[in-house]
Amino acid sequence: MIVIENVDKYFGKFKALDNVSFEVRNGEIVGYVGLNGAGKTTTIRIAVGVLYPDKGDVLINGYSITREKRKASYHVGWVPELPIFEPDAKALDYFVYLAGYYGIPAGEARRMGRELFEKVGIGEAADKKLKQYSQGMKKRFALAVSMINNPDNFLFDEVLNGLDPEGIAFFRKLALEFKREGRAVLFSSHILSEVENLADRVVFIHKGRIIAVHTMEEIKSMAKPALRIKTDRVDEGLVKILGEYGEVRVKDDAVYLINPSIDSSSLIEKLSQKGYRVEEINRVRPSLEEVFFKIIGEQK
Amino acid sequence: MSLTPIIYDFKRSFLRLSTIAFLIVFLLGGAGLSYLSYQFFTQQYPSIYTAGIITATNNTCMIHGIVYDPFGHLVDNARLVLVNRSGSIIAGFRVKGNYTVNLTDLCSRIGGARKLWYYLGTIRVESSIGNQTITTFARNMVNESWYIIYGRDFAGGGIIGFGEQPPTAPTTRQEEISKYESSIPSVWASLILLDKKTGDSVLIMLAVNNNQSIPGLKPHYNISYAFLKTMIRQGIFGVSGGFSTVNLSRLEYRDLGYIDKYVSMYRIRVDPDKDNLVLRIYDPASNTTSYLTIDYAFKTPVKAVYTGVLVAGTPMNLFMTFFPILFLYLSYALLAKPKSIGALEFILARPVTRWDIYLTRWVGGVLTALISPALFVLAVDATTYAILGYGMPGSVLLAVYTGMTLALVAFYSLTYMFAAGLRSSLHLAASITAYLVFVIFWSIIVLISAFIIGAGFAGVASISYLLAYFNPLGAYNFAQYSIQVDYGLTHPVETANPWLGGLSAIIWITATFIIGYYLFKKANLTS
Ligand SMILES: Nc1ncnc2c1ncn2[C@@H]1O[C@H](COP(=O)(O)OP(=O)(O)OP(=O)(O)O)[C@@H](O)[C@H]1O
Ligand SMILES: [Mg+2]
């Protein structure tokens, strides 16, 4: 369980986080969505204890990351957005080194490292130096490290970014597995659709402030289906007719009928009866990104 | 937290290529340094000596003697050449450290020679480095020298003498002998003063029996010894006053036992507060007692000279000129660089605090600072041992090691502090500046300070120690100083206090460590 409580963070005069609060419950995957520079990484870095908050606190399994850093850190795994390691170390050696901080003796850590490397798909590169790792391999390495002590909580920062399709599939599977095991998973993204199939809830952050928290159901319902209709002409009459079957929106050279209460073939019939020639009609769904922008827009 | 991170950080500091390369250069350098010191030493002191007796009874001539180094250790494999008065070789032998030469025609070869010359050019077997004969090594090391066997005729025509001294020695010794002796004994003695402070010495005695009826002129005397202060001396080298009159028989003697051998060596401790060793020789056959005195007031303690050359000399300082570079580099590799590229953040996400990271990496470098000088000092000592068969005194090793280690840890902590507070490029700039100030330009700074204060050249030593407290590497100067003073190689300087020097290093270490932590706590660990 990760509880973020009223966190403020300043970089100089710039307020990067403004009273950020939300929680990730056990057995829950939470998407953390916001535009570039919104403050996702900053929040996560504070939550894993590598950055001090100026106000507020983060509780990991009830341990304060600011006051009980060792205990809190023990229960959280982190995959950074851009993982940076000491470049001259060999991956497995470095894993053993980091495992040492969890009190795992070298021999056991080595065995465990090979296992986890195999699992995350860098088994071949265990003896390579970290500076020879690609960005995706670094992510996989960080993922292996985050699982060292099998923590209850995971913070993944843009983890799908830089992974190949196979890696993405693997990660999704892993996240769901964590969820099933009752762990708390937070993962950030600047693309809402990226979290669509995964997240139970989405926390939206914009310019350092939490602007909305929605369950995936709610978000999906916001993304209502629509009929996109292109006719020979768009006039008030057309809008009036369509208005009987749902919400109408005119955009560019097309008209959108949102949440239509009529199917497309009947609509074509109705329109041609009234003298409109339908050139094109198709069912559309506003993308999640549109929903996302709508949420942000509402907040502005 | 297990020990793995500390061990790992240590391994990364110690087992890194640059550290190893550095150490190898240093170990070789340390060995070379010992060799250089030895060379220097042997320029002042011939590397081997011999003392021997030629006995001639019933037309059987034998040479009994020893070959030894300046520290009184027997040296095997010396080539001993007997040369007659006109300079032609009459016999040559390769001898052991303790030898008896018994050639059938030795008597006839010696003939009527009054003086015999030992020609010594040795090839030593360095048993401590694998029983290998290192011919060129030894040849270069040893000044080939002529040694006189000097002596006097005595009943039976035997010749007795020391080969230790240059040709002027007999007169001196004769004077010495005549100073106190009631009768001229058939015992000759020589003293090697190893250490002035402890009085650690080697006493070498040659003895024959005056009595022709004893087969082989085998000696049988009871020897005891005592100490005597004959002069009132002031200061280190000043002499004032004169001889005091003493009755030798009234001294308090310690028993050395009977000597039954022609050549004997004893390890004794002379009284550092006295200046003469008095040997009492009792001949039970004739029930006579005679005395022999050896003045050791002005003898140079060989260990001290060697140690002084080795420890306090320029070559050793050279190492302290370059050693700090390694530690400057370690603080860069262990802290400045990973911090700068942002690699510490990932480590900080472990169940550790900034303190843990700061401490383990500091310890990693400190362990290297504890081990490298130890290896270096041991290399120097081992080489010394290989060359001389004589290690440096433990107290000296300890002082050198402690001084070096404190100095290096202090310098490391200083640059580690820079690493904690500055970006890696600035860390390098600050560390190199510190290096230039505290190492390269330090002596100039001392000179200028002495000049500004108006102390002049006479005050340089005093100012230099005063300023050394403000140099993180100063502890080493104080270690050198304490050794030099211990061995009487330098006059005490009022401003120099080795304990304070050590304390200064500890303060340097503590202060930089604490300030460094304070800076590290606030540091931005993101790249
Ligand atoms: N170390 C820093 N110093 C100064 N400003 C910073 C620092 N780190 C982040 N910021 C600023 O804080 C804001 C939030 O940055 P953050 O990295 O948290 O965004 P993000 O949501 O993760 O963006 P992205 O999707 O691009 O990863 C940005 O305006 C950024 O410029
Ligand atoms: Mg980010």
The percent range for helix content of chain A is: 25-40%
**CA(first)-CA(last) distance of chain A:** 31 Å
Oligomer: heterodimer
CATH architecture of the largest domain in chain A: 3-Layer(aba) Sandwich
| Uncertain regions spanning at least 5 consecutive residues of chain A | none
What value does the average pLDDT of chain A take? Answer: 90
Mean pLDDT of chain B: 75
How are strands sequenced across the largest beta sheet of chain B? 5-2-1-10
How many H/I helices of chain B? 15
Q: Percent of residues of chain B in helical segments?
A: 40-55%
CATH homologous superfamily annotation of the largest domain in chain A: P-loop containing nucleotide triphosphate hydrolases
Strand content of chain B: 15-25%
Spatial strand order of the main sheet of chain A: 6-7-8-3-9-10
Strand content of chain A: 25-35%
Biggest sheet architecture of chain B: 4 strands, antiparallel
CATH class assignment of the largest domain in chain A: Alpha Beta
Please provide the count of β strands of chain A: 14
**How would you classify the helix and strand content of chain A by structural class?**
alpha/beta
